[in-house]
Design goal:
alpha+beta; 6-stranded antiparallel beta barrel; 8 helices; globular
Length: about 400
């Protein structure tokens, strides 16, 4: 008989989460030196944000102090709430939030696989909030980072039932604060980079919803500079302006140049005095033609005086979509050839001058309409071939 007053020992209760937590191979953690020793998020297999936030400030500061470039990208699942509600209403075998977990688990698996194909010497991938992923890495230039994030975006679009939109920024030594003696400056600096990227993501997603466009976009912003004056930018942190049929989503920052209101783009300025003509779409869906000029090596466009372009109080910038405008064909090009080039969206200038002269001679000397049509068709084929090569 048990002694009175002594409670019976309690049997250990089974942990209801044990069976639902996947086991990840530590060797597959998405990190390369940075954040070593971090815990993994049990759902995605990415680094947990608390550990990322604890380790990354020292890593970023050290890399930038050594002259490295650091890329930072935040990805957010588009329409996850709607997907969860749809699954809850239509799938009798799945309650909605489980569908959300499945999306995030697949997102983590795809991100881990993508991360291990990247050439970065230093980097990591972590969770960020409920349905976000964050990427940090050292890199050669902004274009390489943009291409890498686009590859991840496309892979996620293939493997998930929803799209994932990203915002990214690229920092260099010039972005480090001048006063680095104060305690805790590394965390303050890192939080400023995260905030700039996150605000770019929010602004771009808000503009996309207002225009009714698709998700899965990549927006580019600039890190805040420490001083009031903007020096010449490190060209490695800037993307080239879009060309061909490309679209580029950016967060443009206002700049007052002494009476001229401009928007700075996170892009390299065009060469020459004429600038580059762009089709610029504003958050409200309005599109206009603007000329990008170079300001100390960085692209900028003027701000029209129309009220819709006014920057809201406290906003980090204006979410714009940039598209190139193909310059009109030379005046010597016949109207029917120019119309055929426009229909095919081809640039006559890709042909060398002597080839242009030969083809124009054959077209203008055509004896019949049928011969002229056939020679224009052959010319279009030649321009298309040269464009692809």
């Amino acid at each position: 008989m048990d002694s009175p007053g002594k409670p019976l020992p309690k049997a250990a209760l089974p942990d209801p989460l044990t069976a639902s937590v996947p086991l990840f191979d530590p060797a597959q953690m998405p990190l390369r030196t940075w954040c070593a020793g971090s815990r993994e998020d049990p759902l995605t297999g990415l680094i947990t944000f608390p550990d990322f936030h604890s380790h990354i400030p020292r890593a970023l500061a050290a890399a930038l102090a050594e002259g490295e470039l650091v890329g930072l990208a935040i990805g957010d699942v588009d329409g996850l709430k709607e997907h969860v509600e749809q699954a809850n209403a239509t799938d009798p075998t799945c309650y909605g939030h489980l569908a959300g977990n499945q999306v995030m688990a697949r997102l983590g698996a795809a991100t881990r696989s993508w991360f291990h194909t990247q050439p970065w010497q230093y980097g990591c991938a972590a969770t960020f909030g409920g349905d976000e992923v964050i990427i940090a890495a050292t890199l050669d230039n902004a274009s390489a980072f943009h291409r890498a994030v686009a590859e991840l975006r496309d892979r996620l679009a293939d493997e998930l039932p929803v799209r994932v939109s990203f915002a990214l920024t690229v920092a260099s030594t010039e972005h480090l604060p001048a006063n680095r003696e104060q305690s805790g400056w590394k965390h303050v600096f890192t939080d400023a980079l995260l905030a700039a990227t996150d605000k770019c993501l929010f602004a771009t997603k808000s503009a996309r919803r207002a225009r009714g466009g698709e998700g899965g976009v990549i927006a580019v912003t600039q890190p805040p500079l420490p001083g009031p004056t903007a020096p010449a930018r490190d060209p490695r942190t800037l993307l080239p302006l879009p060309a061909g049929t490309e679209q580029l989503h950016v967060l443009a920052r206002p700049l007052d140049t002494g009476g001229h209101r401009m928007l700075l783009l996170p892009c390299t300025g065009p060469a020459g005095l004429r600038g580059k003509r762009l089709r610029v779409t504003h958050p409200d869906g309005r599109a206009r033609t603007a000329v990008a000029v170079s300001m100390r090596g960085q692209a900028a466009i003027s701000i029209p005086d129309e009220p819709p372009t006014a920057l809201p109080a406290g906003a980090p910038g204006i979410a714009l979509t940039l598209q190139p405008i193909r310059e009109r064909a030379d005046r010597g090009v016949p109207d029917d050839l120019a119309a055929a080039l426009d229909r095919a969206d081809l640039d006559w200038a890709v042909l060398p001058g002597h080839e242009q002269a030969q083809m124009l001679h054959l077209i203008t000397e055509s004896a019949t309409t049928d011969i002229r049509t056939a020679r224009i068709t052959a010319t279009i084929d030649a321009v298309a071939t040269r464009t692809r090569s």
